[in-house]
Amino acid sequence: MEGLAKFNGYIKKFEEFILSYSILLMAIILVANVIGRLVFNHSLKFAEEAGSMLTLIVTFIGVSYCARVGRHIIMTVFFDIMPPKGKKLFLFISSSFTTACLLYLTYLSSNYIMGVYNTGRVTPALGLPMWIPYMFVPLGFLLGALQYLVILLLNITDKTSYHTCIDPIPDETADPEIFMMDREPMADEAPETDPQDSKE
């Protein structure tokens, strides 16, 4: 597992690099385009095209990053009431199914990229081969599949339950007081007072 953790760390750095610089470059291009159009009455011809490409890159690389940090939308209504063993089984099934789906999408999108590559299509403004920005689609699916595979392996090899690669799901039966410490009191719950304060 140490080798897997090290490899996953490299993927994390790659994701953060691509996402951060893509968003930064997108902001610079789009802001420069607005300034050029309003101030100099001349817009950048490639701005819309570059913005679309960068949005595509951020979207699909974000699939993997959101899986890593647990930011995908999830429904936990039934999951929260499951016993620990039920949660473990549910995470095993969901991680396996999601990994398989993402690998299948990787296969389909890779075939599409090969078709685009064979046609030799280029973008209108930049003249960039279309397969270059499109290759981030299967890459994002593949990295996402790897993240869910890591989650699956963590749930197999560790006694605790994981729905992300970084944070285990705490066992609520271990120490219930831990989960009551940060909980805000309900409207019908009277706040606890110190007996000495009441005497004063």
Automatic annotation (TrEMBL):
The keyword Cell membrane applies. One of its GO terms (biological process) is C4-dicarboxylate transport. Keywords: Cell inner membrane, Cell membrane, Membrane, Transmembrane, Transmembrane helix, Transport. One of its GO terms (cellular component) is plasma membrane. It is found in: Cell inner membrane. GO terms for molecular function: transmembrane transporter activity. This is Ectoine TRAP transporter small permease protein TeaB. Its main location: membrane. The keyword Transmembrane applies. Residues 26-154 form the Tripartite ATP-independent periplasmic transporters DctQ component domain. It comes from bioreactor metagenome. The chain crosses the membrane at residues 21-40, 52-69, 89-110, 130-154. The gene is teaB. InterPro entries: DctQ, TRAP_DctQ.
